[in-house]
């Protein structure tokens, strides 16, 4: 009987370990990427537009699946209007006019696609490339940490004077709603703007907590895929694929819960400035910030970020691979049950962050899986990371480290039609201590 009890405990412990491994990275009993995402970009074909959208939408309007739409110039939804979009509707952004769609503060978008009939924003060019058109902007009245409120006017060339008010964002309503984005794909965004950088795939500025943001895929953006400035949001099952700039960029006092989401980088697409999967900042310029307001806080659970490279060492030597996560001064990140695979290194902290207990308690990595990275956690411009390795390598954080290839780590990333980026079970040999002698 004693031997039987021991065997039962061994089997139970082994089963619990399997489930603990399965809980890291993106999760789901089935592959939630199926049906609504698209990783085969040479197979795309969208109908020619039958309707044109231009100017301001000032009253409730509905877009229908039976039509295809061409977005021309800077389009604003204003005057408290709501833009309704049927599942399966296709909206193409015009290349020549640097098209973009802005949901102004007080207005809403109700774009609720389905798993089998997603809503698609894409480029009108026959040969599509990153940066073909602007992107999608949602503006709300939730708080920022800046003095005063903000504006996105610099994204819009030749902006009509009456539209300047429609570019403002920020306020005191952390529970505001800008509507719903669910089962939505946003493709080939990030048009370059003279003197203002690039549009982003999806810019959320001052957006409140009652906005629904689920199952959104941004692909081939020349700017950031997801740019979040201030506000108080929950973003779930978001996918960034082969973005030139950052995948998820948080700034200006953002309060964000990022859940069960995926970022896939390519070493041959990232910008020369050094793009990250997660970039967590509280400000660009310290003098712009009201420190009596909340600093940026990102709580990221079950995130998978990976660098899609076949030869990590060679790509690092060519300068093509950077860190996966960057955390700036006075910003907080709580990242747990997540996978970081194939970066140089996994994480970099701003060199202005003093390495002490107070600061490290604001930057948490727990129950993590660090895989095949050229180093784990460093301070910028400092190759000695002993203090950080000792801190985050403590067994109390339940972090594990491995050197497996992406093919061995994830279930099926070579399936172009239906890839599966969930963590593979029973194929990982992990250790509880970081390898301090990494090349």
Give the tags.
439 residues; mainly beta; 17-stranded parallel beta sheet; 11-stranded parallel beta sheet; T9SS C-terminal target domain-containing protein
What does this structure look like?
- This is T9SS C-terminal target domain-containing protein.
- With 439 residues, the protein is mainly β.
- It has one domain.
- It has helices at residues 2-22, 312-317, 357-360, 386-392, 406-409, and strands spanning 51-53, 56-57, 61-63, 68-71, 74-77, 82-85, 90-93, 100-103, 108-112, 119-123, 136-139, 150-151, 168-169, 179-187, 192-193, 197-198, 202-205, 212-219, 226-229, 232-241, 248-251, 255-265, 278-280, 297-307, 325-327, 332-336, 339-341, 347-349, 363-366, 369-371, 377-379, 400-402, 410-412, 420-423.
- It has a 17-stranded parallel beta sheet that branches.
- A hairpin with a 7-residue loop joins β33 and β34 (420-423).
- The N and C termini lie far apart (50 Å).
- The model is unreliable at 1-21 (pLDDT under 50).
Question: In brief, what are we looking at here?
Answer:
This protein is 10% helix and 34% strand. The protein is mostly beta strands. The protein has helices spanning 2-22, 312-317, 357-360, 386-392, 406-409; strands at 51-53, 56-57, 61-63, 68-71, 74-77, 82-85, 90-93, 100-103, 108-112, 119-123, 136-139, 150-151, 168-169, 179-187, 192-193, 197-198, 202-205, 212-219, 226-229, 232-241, 248-251, 255-265, 278-280, 297-307, 325-327, 332-336, 339-341, 347-349, 363-366, 369-371, 377-379, 400-402, 410-412, 420-423.
